[in-house]
């Protein structure tokens, strides 16, 4: 779930309002978006990918984290390098290499779905 | 739905949904000379399962032996419901279109041998490029414009759609068009699976209101593993997993196919199951991280190293997203049974190329590209014939225009559907008795929804989504009851074997009355 909009970093571009597929954010009165419908967050990390200044943090939990959780603590999350983490991982942003370019996966055995059932003929 | 029309547009082709299927359809229609509008519930570029999850593709170079082998391999597990001709077409079209995507600048990786690897697409990068290409092709994109209903002529031809402007005060939009491509994705029942809460089966409901038929809806119970606390259902890396019980004792679960079922059984029984990527050779781990950041990041954020720490898992419902059922297509151009209405991607049945087993690991993404391209081109051709454009009426009913006093609450309906469709014991492990019990509840729910459910503004979307989920659940379980056997992902505890007489597709349709009909078997090919 989306947990943090960094008041310090946000430049009020409203990109997150636009790109969030489930429209979790509203534009905020002071220019900084507000998390208006947290229950609609589907933990997809897309807002993190698009925020140009790494001001967002989406916790990996499918429910909001406990009030005391470090994942709500901007100082902790920033220090851990997790603000805007998805953008970093996919290599978006100035001076980064697109992650897609480096995504040479290991040759994997093809995912095998459940084996076919025997058919008596 | 009473809101005033605050946005009215005309187009040759209207595409509903801006995931890969919708984007490819819009581009193909525009390239065929059509004036195209694409409306998405969310944002074309981030919305839908491919943007969130990424896609490995059924991507095969034009080497006949390789392609034959790939088709043979799928046929061997697909429950005899596929058609070779469709497989060939999808492989060829996907290969061709991925070549074009490379030309548009998608940064495909190059391996150590200097070979460009085009078989895998990273979600955000892929869909950002698709949006850009659609835009440059002249497609007019409407983000946050969910469609709620189709517009139809008196004789039932689809000639547009209407919905709400979610971020502009919730007013009504209407697009009048010469043809419509539905590309609204599958239905994951708002299970929370990452990226899938936009996929609520709206397109299936809209189409069914014009009499469209569906097929393969019994293959609708895809579930995928995620960390127990989360919703990230990336499956590829689980090939390297070993599983443990709550005491840390290794579970002997057999090969991958049977392992999944054994894990499901344990979870359904309320046991805890932990996973660890023990089988990943240390030399590969860095490459694994680079190739699937959306598997690793949610674990990193939770402070878990999956190579050394076992973490608890759960199974999250993905319904017809990584299932195979959907709208029945009746021609090679992905026409539905409704004139002027085409289906592409997960909203359409994928049985033709992946049968009774999930196409989620490569087939579905290839299908989205191919079916999107065909549907877009065909819709453009249909539109130039100009059969529509006459008087039209809005076709939406349940959840939109209740025939009784509006009293329903969408959230309660959603919960009631989820109670029937999410639990492993009801939907992964099916029995005739259980299916009948669920159908009794869902049928009653439908009657209620049709009579009373509606909403205003954003609430109109919630109500309509809830109605679509009820309809989806009823088709799913009616088809599951009709398929009195086990085949592929459809597992009936009371009929554990496959029945050769049922090696055929099952059609389903209807709203107030749901019907099923087995497809006439094709004449056996010697
Ligand atoms: C975790 C995960 C991993 C996957 N990995 C693979 C893989 O490796 N290989 C593979 O082949 N397949 C994979 N798949 C499946 C693949 O992603 C889908 O088959 C593919 O994305 C289907 O494309 P689509 O455009 O039909 O649907 P989607 O990508 O789901 O897009 C549907 C779009 O329709 C929009 N929409 C919905 N309702 C409305 C409405 N009422 N009005 C307007 N717009 C609407 C949504 O906002 C969304 O943008 C995976 C799926 C998941 C969930
Ligand atoms: S994680 Fe996804 S759903 Fe949640 S706020 Fe960000 S973009 Fe929206
Ligand atoms: S995208 Fe980032 S910078 Fe822009 S408004 Fe959102 S949080 Fe602020």
Please, could you describe this protein's structure?
The complex is a heterodimer of chains A (121) and B (526). Chain A has 121 residues and is of the alpha+beta class. Chain A has 5 helices and 4 strands. Chain A has helices spanning 15-19, 46-50, 74-79, 85-89, 99-102, and strands at residues 2-5, 25-26, 34-35, 56-58. A two-stranded antiparallel ribbon of chain A has the order 1-4. In chain A, strands 2-3 form a two-stranded antiparallel ribbon. The longest helix of chain A has 6 residues, at 74-79. Chain A is globular. Chain A starts with a strand and ends in a 19-residue tail after the last helix. By secondary structure, chain B is α+β, with helices and mostly antiparallel strands. Chain B folds into 2 domains: 5-212 and 320-394, FAD/NAD(P)-binding domain; 223-317, Flavocytochrome C3, Chain A, domain 1 (Alpha-Beta Complex), CATH 3.90.700. Chain B is built from 15 helices and 18 strands. In chain B, strands 1, 2, 5, 6, 7, 8, 15 and 16 form an 8-stranded mixed sheet that branches. A 4-stranded antiparallel sheet of chain B has the order 14-9-17-18, with helices on one face. In chain B, helix 14 runs antiparallel to helix 15 (458-482). Chain B is globular. Classes of the chains: A alpha+beta (121), B alpha+beta (526). Chains A and B meet through helix 1, helix 2, helix 4 and helix 5 of A and helix 3, strand 4, helix 5, helix 7 and helix 8 of B. The complex binds flavin-adenine dinucleotide and iron/sulfur cluster (2 copies). One iron/sulfur cluster binds at residues 5, 10-16, 33, 51, 53, 55-56 of chain A.
